[in-house]
Design goal:
The chain is built from 19 helices and 24 strands. By secondary structure, it is of the alpha+beta class. The longest helix is centred in the first third of the chain and has 23 residues. This is Aspartate--tRNA ligase.
Length: about 625
């Protein structure tokens, strides 16, 4: 057994039971005796005493040529995906394969030894075509799925990206500090995963939704710059860019820092990583575009705008509200709403806003319009409408009969020209904005010439509202993070308390980092002053005692003199998904759960024994299925 250190491409590799890997041999190795190990990917017999084996390991594949009946018989007796050792002689291939890195050579074996036999004649799916298999099968046999080089490369990418992030953060003076996994339950916006405490009957730990409080406590403890690749646990539903159960983020915090300090670090660290490892080699340069939240909602219909798209939203309420089209009316009856295909619902027919998206130089068919409008309606849950300006300058198609009589006003409001398509939404403000945002993204991606797809476009969304009116309570509530510093500090809160300003106009020193229409991260300048913190909570009917009860460690720590601090936590999973060009986050996670938060490979979650429950002082009403 060769256990010496071999040097491969400048890297020290400990080789066990092999002289080379399966992606390494070249024409310069012809004549050498070698030992290769790996998985038997395929065996092909082409005649009496002649056959070919493709041997695959982590690094690549090598062709093995079988030139005797004995060797062919030996290989045929081995099931595909068994692990084997091949000792033999390297020679030049007569028929080279330029698509294979080792395509100039082949190995003629002296011996083939089975190291780990695959005991199944049939595999759940073909390894090299596993991405075409049913997802349930892929997740159940994930260890086979990961043998596919196309699947494995995403995990390798993830490893390289994390290594690059660690190096960059360390070079920027950040210390990597791990924070607890078992902690106290805390109201942070999502459901906790609870862990029963055996030694403390009736009490529970919680897995952290984020290291938020711990990293702020580190700032209070005197650490200047902290980061970690942090695991976070939230009991929430899955979606394309979110994995249920656990996810990872590049968590960071800076003491004596402002929003500008956080922006500077992110704008320095992230673009080189995206340019080096991304599907595209172009990324935004510093400074990233900054867009206030309210402007983003009005201009792009979303607080996650994709700036690769050149389409924007225009409010045309004043121009179109009296055009005679029912869904555009500022007030309509329930009967009118029903007659307008349910565009408005009874009881929600007031305060209608009308949003328009102009798509210039539109040359697609009516069938294309109908299909894309249908996609918008499916995604937004709301109706969308359209009309065009033809080559003669006339308004045609869709709802044009309603807007044609006020053509001059419409053309002026939207700066229309021949060939423009106008797609519209209506409804209460948030619904109209949301639908307009979907129009921008859907038509922007579908219509040629309106999206520069092959780059990573970053932007900051800033000036988020501190408060909102809760849909269920009808009362003032925190809009996002309750620990963000209100812009203007204590004085702003006191003005709201005295009735001098509307609390809904208070913004927070909070920011989101968005890339290509996907929220990569949220962050904020933290509210580090107990007096300001208490006043912020009093605005939502919670007093000092509530703050002490819900966040005792942080409140007490801040009372001992906390530095101003700020941070952010870009999602590692989403980052790698973007870099890999994948649509599903499960493609870049080594062992992902399914959409129902189940690990069907390991059988989790699972029932446990009565004895285990007794030790934890727990009774359950659920029964095994």
């Amino acid at each position: 057994m060769d256990c010496g250190v071999h040097y491969r491409n400048g890297v020290d590799i400990m080789m066990q039971s092999r002289t080379h890997n399966c992606g390494e041999l070249r024409i310069s190795n012809v004549g050498e005796s070698v030992t290769l190990v790996g998985w038997l990917e395929n065996m092909r017999e082409v005649g009496s005493g002649l056959g070919f084996v493709v041997l695959r390991d982590f690094y690549g594949t090598t062709q093995i040529v079988l030139e005797t009946e004995e060797m062919v018989k030996t290989a045929k007796a081995i099931n595909k995906e068994s692990t084997i050792s091949v000792k033999g002689l390297v020679r030049e291939r007569s028929s080279k394969n330029p698509k294979q890195e080792t395509g100039d050579i082949e190995v003629v074996p002296e011996s083939i030894t089975v190291l780990g036999r695959c005991r199944y004649n049939e595999l759940p799916f073909e390894i090299n075509h596993s991405r075409e298999a049913d997802e349930t099968a892929r997740l159940k046999y994930r260890y086979l799925d990961l043998r596919n080089p196309e699947v494995k490369k995403n995990i390798i990418l993830r490893c390289n990206v994390i290594a690059a992030l660690r190096q960059a953060m360390t070079e920027h003076g950040f210390m990597e500090i791990t924070t607890p996994i078992l902690t106290a339950s805390s109201p942070e916006g999502a459901r906790d995963y609870l862990v029963p405490a055996r030694k403390h009957p009736g009490k529970f730990y919680a897995l952290p939704q984020a290291p938020q409080q711990f990293k702020q406590l580190l700032m209070t403890a005197g650490f200047d710059r902290y980061f970690q690749i942090a695991p976070c646990f939230r009991d929430e539903d899955a979606r394309g860019d979110r994995s249920p159960g656990e996810f990872y983020q590049l968590d960071m915090e800076m003491a004596f820092a402002t929003q500008e300090d956080v922006f500077s670090v992110c704008e320095d660290v992230l673009p080189p990583v995206f340019e080096k490892f991304g599907t595209y080699d172009r990324a935004s340069k510093a400074p990233f575009t900054r867009i206030p939240y309210l402007e983003a909602m009005e201009k792009y219909g979303s607080d996650k705008p994709d700036l690769r798209i050149d389409l924007t939203v225009t409010d045309v309420t004043e121009t179109l509200k009296d055009c005679g089209f029912g869904p555009f009316a500022s007030t309509v009856s329930a009967e009118a709403a029903e007659a307008s295909e349910g565009a408005l619902t009874a009881g929600a027919a007031t305060g209608v806003r009308i949003k328009a998206v102009v798509i210039s130089d539109f040359k697609e068919s009516r069938k294309f319009i109908d299909k894309t409008i249908g996609d918008v309606e499916v995604q937004s849950g709301n109706k969308a409408y359209w009309f065009r300006m033809d080559e003669n300058g006339e308004l045609v198609g869709g709802i044009s009969k309603f807007v044609a009589p006020i053509k001059d006003a419409v053309v002026s409001a939207l700066s229309l020209k021949a060939g423009d398509l106008v797609v519209l939404s209506s409804g209460k403000l948030t619904a109209a904005q949301k639908t307009a945002g979907v129009i921008v993204k859907t038509f922007g991606a579908a219509v040629p010439g309106h999206m520069d797809k092959e780059k990573y476009e970053f932007c900051w969304i800033v000036d988020f509202p501190m408060y909102e009116i809760g849909e269920e309570s009808g009362e003032l509530e925190f809009c996002h993070n309750p620990f963000s510093m209100p812009s203007g500090g204590l004085e702003t809160l006191l003005k709201a308390e005295r009735g001098e300003i509307d609390p809904l106009t208070i913004t927070a020193d909070q920011y989101d980092l968005v890339v290509n229409g996907i929220e990569l991260s949220s962050g904020a300048v933290r509210n580090h002053d107990p007096e300001i913190m208490i006043k912020a909570f009093e605005m939502v009917r919670l007093g000092e005692e509530d703050v002490k009860a819900k966040f005792p460690a942080m409140y007490n720590a801040f009372c001992y003199g906390a530095p101003p601090h700020a941070g952010i936590a870009p999602g590692v999973d989403r980052m790698v998904m973007l870099l890999a060009g994948e649509d599903s986050i499960r493609e870049i996670i080594p062992f992902p759960m399914n959409k129902n938060a189940q690990d069907i490979m390991m059988g989790a979650p699972s029932y446990v024994t009565d004895k285990q429950l007794e030790e934890l002082h727990i009774k359950t009403t659920a029964t095994e299925e």
